[in-house]
Fold:
Amino acid sequence: MRTTILAALATVALASTADAQFVRCWGAGKVTTGGFPQYGQSAVPTDLGYIVGIDAGYAHTVTVDEEGIVRCWGAGDGAGTGDLDYNFGQSQVPDNLGTVIAVAAGHYHNVALRADGTVRCWGYNGCGQLNVPPGLGYVSAVAASICGTSVVTSVGTVVTWGGSDGWANGLYGVTSVAGGACHWLALKSNGRVESNQNYIGSACYSSAIVPFDLEGVVAIAAGDYHSIALKADGTVRCWGAGTAVLSGDPHYGQCVVPPDLGAAVAIAGGSRHTVALLADGTVRAWGQDFYGQGMTPAGLGTVSAIAAGGVHTVALSSVPSPRCPADFNNDNFVDGTDLGSLLSSWGSCVTGWPNCRPDLDGNGFVEGDDLGLLLGSWGRCRD
Structure:
């Protein structure tokens, strides 16, 4: 959700085809309960192709593979279950979509950039964000916000619809865009960042007020109420909500960049958390962590791309998801040892040990539902 790509990142991180690409998800949605926030957005399908692009909406995940085929899962999948407030068909890929080269996910809608430079949108249309205007010409990058869609044309101009229409009129030399709840950012080829501050002023927790000294930027991203920039030297800057950890929404420290972060190569903004991909292929996250979206899993491997949703995080990794999630000690059996690990971790994962693997359903707690999942997979792990 509202990520940006380096060197092509049209709000989705495109991966190198030189490495194996496995989609890994953590946070909410490892299971589908039909209620917030468990919509299956982190339950990765087992039949995906070779994935080269990812993004995350509020409660759904979208991917594109090397053949240009788009897959979605999570809220809005047409299964007929779940809170109607989150089901708008965003996980139902349209027929005849064609060959896609980039995707972007808003809260409840998706945008696909096709190989011929045209754009297709689907999902929620309450703000008109699906109504692609005529005469766009060839599009080079796409982005989606909570209630809007924005594209960069081949000549470096920006067109936005569904929310803050016209904010970028007169901008040129733009390479990528990113949007949040009510703010938009545009990255220019000179490394400077523009925003829709002229539309919203200091509203949305000052997320559109770009620091005056910010330059040398190579990527941008936006959460609901915060903005993130990645500089050429690998440093990360953040402004808007969450510049401190306060008692009250939406301030969860999502803009408190860890001082020991190291050099980053990609960034992503979730609703109230921030994710960075580091130069060594590892992932760091900070901010809200109610559902484990900030707890990077153990054994993640080398990561080449990241995305952040409402309460889940997505990565492209060199290592597939554990074949047997309840096999905590990796001995190919789910048995009494694993049961003991689960029972010893009983309670909240938010304040417990990091990478809380016994939280099998990803709701931030080790409890009865996780025990049921473990017992349901008892015995030798399947080949």
DSSP finds three helices and 26 strands in the chain. The helical segments are 197-200, 336-344, 368-376. The mean pLDDT is 88. Residues 17 and 138 are 25 Å apart (CA to CA).
